[in-house]
Amino acid sequence: DAGVIQSPRHEVTEMGQEVTLRCKPISGHDYLFWYRQTMMRGLELLIYFNNNVPIDDSGMPEDRFSAKMPNASFSTLKIQPSEPRDSAVYFCASNLVQGANEKLFFGSGTQLSVL
Amino acid sequence: GENVEQHPSTLSVQEGDSAVIKCTYSDSASNYFPWYKQELGKRPQLIIDIRSNVGEKKDQRIAVTLNKTAKHFSLHITETQPEDSAVYFCAASFSGNTPLVFGKGTRLSVIA
Are B7 and B106 in contact (CB under 8 A)? Predict the structure, then answer.
């Protein structure tokens, strides 16, 4: 398996533009998480899904952020409109909870810069 | 909800010395405590984890200890090497069905 795949790796956009980040979890994993990483706040959980259903989106900072998981192999995180303070690395992660196996697999992340 | 505090935020050690990173958590129901290593520009990767029914776990030069009474756990790296230089994150969760809450990370620099 190629692991968790995120695209794009880097995104530079101007304030006010819509940004869409994409994630393909590892096949068979039933949990998908979106995290945001900044120097000040570390790794923050934004939202997570179980079997494509959003379970907790309390970490989504504002209504400008939305996430979907239309099927087991694809998820998107959208920011509309984007603002400079959204600049961060956004990680998608997935896992399959079976017995004592709880290892979280991260994607390579999307470095977002909003100018 | 769970809150995880991690110290120190930066740590420099001489090659061959030991490094210790400490974390505290707030939710006494948490029972799973992994540690992730993130090299510069890379994704976080699991290096070791411990569950609440165990007080200590070791894997070669890396060990983790857990004190459930005090609600803190620590990562110990012995005989540090330059390739140990990275950001280390601790995390806690109630179970595999609840998401991990991460500490803010410790930037470890091993000086050759």
Answer: yes
